[in-house]
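User: quick one
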Amino acid sequence: MIIKVKAFSVFTDILGKELVLEISDRENISLSEFIDLLAKKYSGLSKLLETIEYVILVNGERVEEEHLLRDGDEVAILPPASGGL
Amino acid sequence: MYVCVNITSEKPSIDKLTEELLKNTDRTTGAVATFIGFVKGVVDGKKVYKLIYSAYEPYASKSLEKIAYEEAEKHGLKGVIIIHRIGELFPGDPTIYILVAAKSRHEAFTGVRNILERVKHESYIYKLEIREDGEYWVLGDGKRIQRFKEQSP
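Assistant: Done. Structure below.
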C-alpha cells in the first residue's frame, strides 16, 4: 500500500514537502496508526504535534482517526492557516 | 451571485478586477468594497526581508470558494472576488485582494471584513517570514515558530 504525505509550513522542516511511504507488512492502517508510524520514523514530529494545533486531511477531507487509509491516499499535515496579510 | 477566486503569483490589476465584478453583477449593485493586504516591512520591531506564501492546492482554492459562497449567501452579496498571491513577496507588495459587490455599503463592508477574517483562518495558505533575526513560520493569527533548519521552503 502506497501513501503519499504532503507537509506544509513548519511540518516541512521535519518531513520535507512531500514523501511517499510504502506499507507492505499489513492489509490496512488507520489514520492514527499511520501518524504514529510517521512519528516513529521522523524524530521531532511527535513533539511538534503536541506543541501546536494541526489538521490532518485525507484526500482533502477531514476524517476520523479510525479512518482506514487506502492505497494511493494523500495525507496532508497542516498547521493553522496564515493566509491574508 | 458571482464568485471568482484565484491563487496566483501574479499581481492583478485592481481596475480590471473591479470591472469584472461590476460586469458580472446586476444593476442593483450600489457598492463595491475592496480590501488589499500588504507585506509589512517591520514585525515585532524586526526588519522583514520577505514572505514566502504557499498553498495546498486544489483545496486552498476550494476553501476560498466555500468562504466566498457562504459569506455571499449570509450577507446577500452580489459578487465576491478573492485573489491570494503566493510565492516570494516583499515589503509593500500586495498579498491579498478581496472585492465585494453589494446593494449598499453596509453589506459590502461587513462582507469584506468577514471574508478576510475567514481567509486568515480557513484557507490552507501558509507563510514563512524571512527577517533580520531569522526565519519564522507564521501559524494562525500571529504565532511564530523559528525554522528548525535551513532548507528551501
